[in-house]
Amino acid sequence: MCCSKIASILSISVFEALILSLVPRTKTEIDNIDAILEQHIPSDQLAEVRRILYGSNLGKPVEPIELSSDLAQSAAKGNFEIKQFRLSANPEQLRPPRIVKVGLIQNAIVKPTNAPIQEQYQALQDRVEELLDAAGKAGVNIVCMQEAWTMPFAFCTREKYPWIEFAQSAEDGISTKFCQRMAKKYNMVVISPILERDDAHAGTIWNTAVVIGNNGNVIGKSRKNHIPRVGDFNESTYYMEGDTGHVVFETVFGRIGINICYGRHHPLNWMAYGLNGAEIVFNPSATVGGLSEPMWSIEARNAAIANSYFVAGINRVGTETFPNEFTSADGKPAHKDFGHFYGSSYIAAPDASRTPGLSRCKDGLLVCDLDLNLCQQVRDRWGFQLTGRFPLYADFLTNYIEPDFVPQRVKDPSL
Q1: Which of the 8 DSSP states describes residue 120?
Q2: Active site residue 336
Q3: Is 332 among the catalytic positions?
């Protein structure tokens, strides 16, 4: 099929479908781009369009896995979506496949934001427990929830109370104890991103992911390295940059890192997890369509390619409305909500392929079988780490952080 025809398909059919879906008479968010593709692109051309959008894994489209009847019933009963895929590696003579089943959970808040704090948290825990039960039925080995899953993403308000009352101990808080129970129940590593209260250091607040081992033990925690100061993301009112570095956790199922939300915009942040040996990096997030959606499908995929590991992007869904108005320091009227959290959680592989995403609007569980051997196979093929000029970069950055740094520029003498 000629390139001009594919370009025409992508630029006209999909564009028109998007426009039709967004006209005022619907007043609803687009649920899923894949559904639009299926509706508007002829079946004989759809596979090629998906190859262009999602890449190929071992020269083939990313393989979907049919849901068992039990999982399908769980999804229908719980009113959430489940999608399953497989990202494979080539067979090797000396190493057996290293298959890890990863689960990503996205969800909306359950109670209104003016409900009592304990009621809001308990409703979220009950909802996440449903999704974790489904992950357990699916045989998931490592599961990750969205950023600050235990609360509404209230950091837009700049109000300390009641929102910091959601903060908990990473070691023995109520959400950690809940996740320990679920991890032990399903022999599953659980990554639990929370708002942390650090009682050992004067009750300081952090944005933290707690890593719980498959035996129910707390392996450790990873704090958010980069804090946004853009739009309604006023997070430095509550917590500052994390102090745990780029820790990689060696679990029974593989080596994992957690790059929380805004850290995905920083290439060196991604690189450090790779140099520390991560095979899967999770990016639990809370981000809205008006700000970052054009970046969402690109950044995790770029990181997976550049660093030769798998990346799992998780984003919450829904619109969260708060009791009091706030402004964005952009001259626009005050408002009570962030905008739409667009979900779309997906997994990107080091070979440039990726899964389709979950819904933009609906709670869901994405499950994917990953063969971790693919990480080394891609490193061997492309040699990004082999050809990296790390001493050169180190020298440059060493000079750059000095007050007397002079940029290396050559000016055209004719100017």
Answers
A1: H
A2: no
A3: no
Give 173's DSSP letter: S
| Residue range 5-51, pLDDT digits in tens | 444 444 434 444 443 444 344 457 899 888 899 999 998 899 899 99
Give the pTM.
0.93
Q: Order of strands across the sheet with 254-258?
A: 248-251, 254-258, 280-285, 310-315, 346-348
How remote is the C-alpha of 164 from its chain's centroid?
23
Phi and psi at residue 37, to the nearest 5°:
-60, -45
Comparing CA positions, the residue from 54, 35, 32, 42 lying closest to residue 12 is: 42
HSE at residue 309, side-chain half, CA atoms within 13 A, is 27
Catalytic residue, chosen from 81, 130, 147, 320, is 147
**Residue 99 near residue 369 (C-beta atoms within 8 A):** yes
Query: What is the tens place of the pLDDT at every residue in 69-119?
Result: 999 999 999 999 999 999 999 999 999 999 999 999 999 999 999 999 999
Question: What's the confidence (pLDDT) of residue 12?
Answer: 38
φ and ψ at 335, to 5 degrees?
-150, 175
Q: Which of 198, 197, 254, 245 is nearest to 222 (CA)?
A: 245
Confirm if 365 and 135 have CB atoms less than 8 A apart.
yes
C-alpha closest to that of 210 among 169, 255, 241:
169
Q: Which of 261, 361, 368, 375 is catalytic?
A: 261
Contact in structure between 377 and 90 (CB atoms under 8 Å): yes
261 is an active site residue: yes
Which residue(s) pair with 370 in the sheet? 87, 100
pLDDT tens, position by position, 117-160? 999 999 999 999 999 999 999 999 999 999 999 999 999 999 99
Of 224, 279, 299, 375, the active-site residue reads 224
Alpha carbon distance 170, 225 (integer Å): 17
